[in-house]
Design a protein that fits this description.
Helix 6 links the parallel strand 1 (172-174) and strand 2 (216-220). Among the domains are: 169-285 and 389-400, no CATH class; 290-367, Elongation Factor Tu (Ef-tu), domain 3 (Beta Barrel), CATH 2.40.30. 20% of the residues are buried. It is an alpha+beta fold. The strands form four sheets. A six-stranded antiparallel β-sheet has the order 6-11-8-9-10-7, with no helix packed on it. Strands 1-2-5 form a three-stranded parallel β-sheet, with no helix packed on it. The protein has helices at 16-33, 35-54, 65-77, 95-114, 117-131, 193-211, 250-260, 271-274, 382-391, 394-397; strands at residues 172-174, 216-220, 227-228, 238-239, 266-268, 290-293, 307-313, 321-327, 330-341, 346-355, 364-367, 370-373, 376-380.
Length: 402
């Protein structure tokens, strides 16, 4: 039987060498055609990035015209992920149709979160504003699994259904340590340790089947999740379920099986570096990251007018998730998304959460180590990441290298 990819009508065959040469010429021609535009875009992006960095240097500070104009246009072009709405065409009393539409709507919303569409669209938006063209690249990767359909299966596709030569396309692999399809616990969060372990091991097996048994795969132990009684402010306020206890719970059994597995070229045990020193069953709370105090107070403090800028010590990193005592015994959080240095040891930070909160003068300022995902603290944020990476021994980091 002739290969459909090389057969023509009349029994003729494609000359793959000529086809490849033709496409190579087309690609090179496209590169020459767009070279001047590409070079101009590189210069524009350099100016844009330089204007951002200039704001941290008082000696070089000047009005960032391009950066300012782009920042004004950004929310007009794209501000947030659109919320999917799936409705029935006919609003009759059909519970199946109603539930089906709700399922589709929820699946679309979840898919947008899992695929991180927001960060992709923000990058495309910025490309469009700076270079007049923003393009999203989509890639579909099929993951086939054998299912018992009660009939005799057909022959398995050659080479796993992949083109020849693709097995060597990924020289090294790294499997993360979170929940979900990156190798962590399945969505239903089973209490059986083997279910968790098999989810990670199955991913390793699929990677090696697809890219070759010699693929350098580095495993990472799973981090626990917590609930908190004080918004993640103190280690004592964290609570860890038996399921997620990294010392005595199901998670400890799972991590031990990961470290003992011969599937990995090496396993980086990230849990000791991640956990708090005060309690090895709990993660890094905000009290581990003191940042000083809020300088003065933001806004006009009338409880009605919202504010989106606050003055903080200039040492606070941009991108931090902060928590501060806005009134005695009361705490609230903000995310820092913009920064303008004042040249006096302070900086004006733009926050993403805009409210009319009344803030006391010189409020105590901390940084979150973990983020709140609906009801649980799941993933580390900036200060939690920096702390964890700095505490991982160099001998562990060397496992990345074959």
């Amino acid at each position: 039987m002739e290969d459909e990819t090389t057969a023509l009508e009349g029994g003729q065959q494609w000359d793959l060498a000529k086809v490849g040469a033709r496409w190579q010429q087309e690609l090179e021609r496209a590169q020459r055609y767009f070279r001047s535009w590409h070079d101009r875009c590189v210069k524009i992006e350099k100016i844009y990035l330089d204007q951002q960095s200039d704001q941290t240097n008082a000696a070089k500070r000047r009005f960032p015209m391009l950066w300012a104009n782009t920042s004004v246009l950004q929310p007009a072009v794209y501000a947030r992920v659109p919320q999917p709405v799936v409705e029935r065409r006919f609003k009759d009393a059909q519970p199946v149709a109603r539930i089906a539409s709700e399922l589709v709507e929820r699946n679309l919303a979840d898919m947008g979160d899992e695929a991180d569409i927001d960060s992709i669209m923000r990058a495309v938006r910025d490309d469009f504003l700076l270079c007049a063209r923003g393009t999203v690249w989509l890639r579909y990767e099929a993951d086939f699994e054998a299912l018992d359909m009660g009939v005799q299966p057909s022959d398995a596709p050659a080479n796993g259904g992949l083109p020849e030569g693709l097995r060597s396309g990924l020289p090294a692999g790294l499997l993360g340590g979170g929940m979900g399809d990156d190798g962590g616990a399945p969505p239903e969060v089973s209490a059986t340790a083997s279910t968790w372990s098999n989810a990670k091991f199955g991913l390793v097996d699929r990677v090696k089947t697809r890219y070759g048994a010699g693929t350098h795969v580095v495993g990472i132990t799973l981090m626990p999740t917590f609930t908190s009684t004080d918004a993640g402010r103190t280690v004592a306020g964290f609570a860890v379920a038996t399921l997620w206890n990294p010392v005595t719970g199901t998670l400890a059994t799972v991590n031990n099986s990961i470290k003992a597995s011969a599937r990995y070229a090496g396993v980086i045990d990230m849990v000791p570096a991640f956990m708090s020193d005060a309690d090895p069953t709990k993660g890094p709370a905000a009290e581990l990251f003191p940042l000083g105090n809020v300088v003065g107070h933001p806004g006009n403090q009338d409880g009605v007018t919202t504010w989106d800028t606050m003055k903080l010590p200039a040492s606070v990193p941009l991108g931090s998730r902060i928590i501060f005592e806005y009134q005695p015994g009361l705490w609230t959080s903000r995310t820092l998304i913009g920064r303008a240095d004042n040249g006096d040891g302070t900086a004006d930070y733009k926050v993403s959460e805009i409210f009319a909160t009344n803030v006391q003068d010189n409020a105590t300022l901390l940084a979150h180590g973990m983020n709140l995902d609906t009801s649980s603290y799941v993933h580390p944020v900036l200060h939690g990441v920096l702390r964890t990476v700095s505490r991982i021994p160099q001998s562990e980091k060397l496992k990345f290298y074959p």
